[in-house]
Amino acid sequence: MDVQNLGYALTQVVHNLGAVSVTGGAAAARGLNLAEPQAAQRSLAALVLGGWVAQAASGVCFGAISYLGYGRLPDIHGIAVGALMLKVACAAAGFTVAALYLAREAGWSGPGRQRAWTAQLALALTALAAAAVLRWFS
Amino acid sequence: MTLFKPLLIICSLGLSGAVLAQDASVTISSPADGAKVSASMPTKVTYDVVPGPKGDHVHLYVDGGEATVLRQLKGTTTVDTLKAGPHSLCIKIVDKAHTPIGVEKCIKVTAG
């Protein structure tokens, strides 16, 4: 078994679980009735926050495996670079929204929380779409 | 923090890739190194790649910039019309993550 491919595969597992967490967590929270206990939404916010961290960390790990193996980063260009930048921006924004939610949601109105989840879901779906473009245009 | 320990281990697995793919090779059969090509029409590049255990596909570079990704390991591809003057064409084998594994073939051509 090629150990480097194993590294890529395990990193991909973490990356995929992160994607599921941010998308599924945001979708579930977005669909919750606002009368639901806020504790449930806080749990989902923590899941989404962890998902974005996993996405970012595993993304860095992809690059690290390439760099450790060959002394250089993956060679992507054009549309793929744009897609990668979009993914990074989504991760940064998603992390920020989730962290703000956990820190300040007590003072937010119901519609305010819904807007946060809508934004979170939009960021997750955009990141997923960008990932597909990155995969096949590089 | 528990997330980062396994990721660190996973990342360290990349060290094992330091051994280059010794069985990999790239051949550019056309145009020949030093050949003169047309500056008024696209240039066809015929190549043959053996990816070895580390390689997956190849990238084609024109003057150091990536021009296209080649999924086929053998065949002919077309490079956009080159401006008059000297140019370099390189084909590099990359792994599944698009990282060059260090096996490549570069030629110089002159468009005119």
Topology readout:
The complex is a heterodimer of chains A (138) and B (112).
Chain A: H1 3-31, H2 38-70, H3 79-104, H4 110-136
Helix pairs in contact in A: 1-2, 1-4, 2-3, 3-4
Chain B: H1 4-12, E1 25-30, E2 36-37, E3 43-50, E4 57-62, E5 65-70, E6 74-79, E7 85-94, E8 100-111
Parallel strand pairs in B: 2-8
Antiparallel strand pairs in B: 1-3, 3-6, 4-5, 4-7, 7-8
From the alpha-carbon coordinates, what is the Rg of chain A to the nearest angstrom? 17 Å
Largest sheet of chain A: none
How many helical stretches of chain B? 1
Name the shape of chain B in a single word: elongated
Encode the helix/strand succession of chain B as letters: HEEEEEEEE
H/E element order of chain A? HHHH
Percentage of helical residues of chain B?
A: under 10%
Biggest interface goes to: A-B, 32 and 29 residues
**Spatial gap, N to C terminus of chain B:** 60 Å
Estimate the mean pLDDT confidence of chain B: 87
Strand order of the largest sheet of chain B: 2-8-7-4-5
